[in-house]
UniProtKB/TrEMBL annotation:
Family to which this protein belongs: Belongs to the nitroreductase family.
Pfam families: Nitroreductase
Matches recorded under Gene3D superfamilies: NADH Oxidase
Protein name: Nitroreductase
Organism listed in the record: Leptothrix discophora
Entry keyword set: Flavoprotein, FMN, Oxidoreductase
SUPFAM superfamilies the record matches: FMN-dependent nitroreductase-like
InterPro entries in the cross-refs: Nitroreductase, Nitroreductase-like
All residue ranges annotated as the Nitroreductase domain in the record: 10-199
Cofactor dependency: FMN
Length: 224
């Protein structure tokens, strides 16, 4: 059996959007979360919380989020993610990523129904056995989002190293008031994203999505 190194894990990780129904044991999930907490954190504040949503609560949350999206309810995110307006360079990357995703599943640009059906799967956590809502106390400094981001990446890498797959779900942050109401969270709890974890479906076309990464010269330079 080949040895998988840390570098292999970094290179292999992908956002997976179709999962097998194979369950993930609680103890394995707990182990992944403990590993994620090893991420660097300024002053060791360790910001953020991970909430597993299960059973009827998960079904109800997914239905309500889907309905809010289909009804065109305005998104009121707790934090700004996409720049407004979107710079042309970033817009080109966004479009290329969408083309890679919808191209993998054979959904054309004009196929509104097909694109909507795929997008709606965000609110079902792509049917992964583990569905997490990730939150942070809105009173923390913005640097704490960096700390939480490192913990999120640690979680995804830990899952990859243990033969699992994951996908961070930004769409979950679009209607934070709805999520707070459904999960009984207070107003100081900001909704950051969702997270799906489970065993990847090897036969799902969507999991063959490949997005390009920028070449080194586009994001690295030497001064002096």
């Amino acid at each position: 059996m080949p040895v998988v190194t840390a570098l292999d894990t970094l290179r292999q990780r992908r956002s997976i959007r179709a999962f097998l129904p194979t369950p993930v044991a609680d103890e394995q999930l707990f182990d992944l979360l403990r590993i994620a907490r090893q991420a660097p954190s300024g002053a060791n504040l360790q910001p953020g919380e991970f909430i597993a949503v299960r059973g009827a609560a998960r079904e109800r949350l997914g239905e309500r989020l889907t309905q809010a999206w289909r009804d065109g309810e305005p998104a009121r995110e707790d934090y700004s993610y996409f720049p407004q307006p979107m710079p042309k360079l970033l817009r080109r990357r966004q479009v290329a990523a969408a083309q890679a995703l919808y191209g993998a599943i054979g959904v054309g640009r004009e196929d509104r129904a097909g694109r909507d059906a795929q997008f709606a799967r965000n609110f079902r956590f792509f049917d992964a056995p583990v569905a997490l809502i990730v939150t942070i106390d809105r009173r923390v400094g913005t640097g704490c989002y960096m700390d939480l981001g490192m913990a999120l990446y640690g979680l995804m890498l830990a899952a990859e190293a243990q033969g699992l797959a994951s996908c961070a779900i930004g769409a979950m942050a679009s209607w934070p008031d709805l999520i707070r109401a459904e999960l009984g969270l207070d107003d100081d709890t900001a909704i950051v994203c969702g997270m799906a974890i489970g065993h990847a479906d090897p036969d799902a076309p969507v999991n063959r999505t490949v997005t390009a990464r920028e070449p080194l010269e586009s994001f690295f330079r030497v001064v002096g």
